[in-house]
Design a protein that fits this description.
The protein is mainly α. It has two domains: about 30 residues, no CATH class; about 130 residues, no CATH class. Helix content is about 50%, strand content about 5%. The protein has nine helices and two strands; from the N terminus they run ααβαβαααααα. It has a two-stranded antiparallel ribbon with strand order 1-2. α4 crosses α5. The longest helix is centred in the middle third of the chain and has 17 residues. It is elongated and about 65 Å long. The termini are far apart.
Length: about 200
């Protein structure tokens, strides 16, 4: 199977002839380009805000294998069993963007991911934790950790998963948006509530 149908159609529309010798076999195309994809779980909090269950991420500086390793490393650094892979893909996208813009980060991620090994993503969690602990004082790990935490926990996907409604200023503040609603606590008996100051 060849992955050149869209390119061929675009070339034909633009009037540029395309020969069969310029077609790239699918395996070669996928090996040379980075691509990470997945599915969202139906009924999860992300399914309420996502337009569809399938997602994909095109990588510019990293390969697919590096993207998969990064996603596993991010999930190992910040493990949340019910959190969708799409949330961790945001981390991979941010690291890929940083690697595209900065050659130092690209080299740092490349050498660090190589050091973790090609089979890092398929290892058990305990083995992944040991591998990351072995490099936790390196610049690679510190960069990976800080980018994982900053990008994962500032995403709307994580907000939906954890039930965080976001900042309140643009919505009128917390005072009138449930700050005093303590429906989730049992009523305090009157004798235990203390005096009311007015």
């Amino acid at each position: 199977m060849l992955v050149a149908i869209a390119v061929r159609n675009r070339a034909e529309v633009e009037g540029v002839p395309m020969s069969n010798s310029s077609l790239v076999p699918r395996r070669s195309f996928l090996a040379a380009s980075g691509f990470v994809s997945g599915l969202l779980a139906a009924g999860g909090p992300l399914s309420l805000i996502a337009p569809g269950r399938a997602w994909a991420l095109e990588l510019k500086a990293l390969s697919s294998a590096q993207g998969a390793t990064l996603m596993s490393a991010a999930r190992t650094i910040a493990p949340h069993d019910g959190l969708e892979d799409a949330a961790y893909a945001i981390v991979v996208k941010a690291i890929d963007a940083a690697a595209s813009a900065d050659e130092h980060i690209r080299a740092l991620m490349g050498s660090g991911l190589t050091g973790l090994g090609e089979d890092f993503a398929s290892r058990t969690e305990a083995v992944r934790v040991q591998a990351l602990q072995a490099v936790e004082h390196s610049e690679f790990f510190q960069t990976l950790r800080s980018m994982t935490l900053a990008n994962l926990y500032s995403s709307s996907i994580a907000y939906a998963h954890f039930g965080y409604e976001g900042e309140a200023f643009s919505k009128g503040g917390y005072l009138n948006r449930g700050f005093n609603e303590l429906n989730w606590l049992p009523d305090v008996p009157l004798q235990d509530s203390g005096p009311v100051n007015r």
